[in-house]
Amino acid sequence: MKKTGMKLACTGIALALLTLGSSQSTFAEKQGIQKKPFANTLAVAKTEQFSKTDNPISIGVPITVPSTKPTVVKVLNKEQFGNAKPPVKSEVKLPSDKWGKVILTITGTQKGRQYDRLFQIWAGSSQIFVGVTPEPTKDGIEWKIQKDVTEYLPVLQGKQVLTTKLENYVNDTYTGIPEMSIQLEYYPEEKGKKNKQADPLKIKTPDKIIPITKDAAPFYMYEKNSSMDVPLDLPKDIKGAYLDLYAVPQNNDEFWWSLQPDFREIEVYIDGQPAGAVWPEPTLYTGGVNPYLWRPIQGIHTLDMTAYRVNLTPFAGLLGGKHTLSIKVNQHIDYWLMSGSLFLYQNNRKPTTGKIVKNTLTFPTESDKTKTDLFGNDNNLFGENANKSYEIQGVIDAKGEHYTSTIQASRNNTSDQTNYNEGGVQIVHNAQVVTMDESFAKKGQKASTKHTEEVYTLDCGSGYMPTQDGSSFLLPSNLTQSLHVYNVLNGPEWKSPYESTLYLNTQGYASLYRSKSDTAQGATTAVVDFKDSNEQSYHQVLMSHGGIVTYNLELGSLSKKGK
């Protein structure tokens, strides 16, 4: 995104330098797993750091690719997105058979100088992908993203128009032109695995997908109290429903976690009744705070921004016919982009009815704010805290069958800021804890349950230090980002509960001296830990110095092939 008013890009930062020490893993059961160090392990970076960088790396658990031969559909082939290029519409014929998995593969190349740009894909009017392009170098970069899009199969069959949007602006200074390729890979089910779900955490592919935008374009939520109101006309046999929501902060709200106030809440309503809440997690774009933090290791969920999933199943028996879905963002500044779809699970054309028997969710959530002035002129200590607990329970009746859907949630958000020198120095701490219990029970049967605990933290410090004549400035920055997720699934389909744990962490330091001849230095570490009760595991430690990967260790049954 083009930065208009660089205050936040230069002040969401800190003076404290990050010392990169050794990472100690709690990853268990390493016995018998071969270590796979990078060829240049612990290599010393060149004196002139960032003179050349490795290709961008997105941390996370690798996608499991089936052993079956895929049917491949090419959507874009080396499409260049130059100055103000309009969205590209690709008319494709997609296979309509049953598939075990569908993978979206995106590859990109770019060289020169350019801002980070949003890259978005729609199938029909349903958004299926949004991410941020890496900022290129003069020598050029290449990157690859893979996403499991099996959940989107209802809109990835037959004749379809896939729309790709990348708003880029090119001039004599910003010369980078991304060249993008996209393909869809349809994998048949593997023998013996038809009834075994490879990834239990992914919800079952819905029967029907209803977009919440009329066209292949996001809704722009500008005004402070604006509302995205979506008229719906839905089938009358709904037994389950989820909102698949892409919510992307833009302009000043890109750095909402460093503003005052710094708490955001996405409110979801059905016919004016509170139906779900999302407390978004900060996404660090590839030019955010200091672009040298992200060369080559990217932030969490930056290249592939995940959709927020809101369980609306308690309302399922009420959703048939005409209704209004409304979405708001509490306390936002400037604008957010909203897009996504409703995932519907149907009852084989047998009408359903229902009611909400309990709903303690209310909006807006009021946050407690404290502010202490230091020396005047925007020098202050600022704190903000928000807490919310609620329960929603609904019943669904389907011609003699009776279901109960219950959601219990607890959320806590806390943040602290130190601002000095009129915003020239800023230290930010942001932490969020979300606990969610979801259950779905058919009368007379054991309930299916999901318990989730998610903890996100962000610690960022930076300083903006201009020379006396204002011709140059120093931008020292450090940033730590972490995500912990614990899941437990249980139900009639499980012999025993399924458990999984995920830990993602990046720590980066960078210092940029912007002058006639820029000078930069920096280093980043990243750690990935994943383990589940199906004996699947993955562990990775990545280190980079001056834009070059110096260490890459991968362990576990899901480790990438060929490393």
Automatic annotation (TrEMBL):
Residues 1-28 form the signal peptide. This is Peptide N-acetyl-beta-D-glucosaminyl asparaginase amidase A N-terminal domain-containing protein. The keyword Signal applies. Keywords: Signal. The keyword Signal applies. It holds the Pfam family PNGaseA. Residues 73-359 form the Peptide N-acetyl-beta-D-glucosaminyl asparaginase amidase A N-terminal domain. It comes from Heyndrickxia shackletonii.
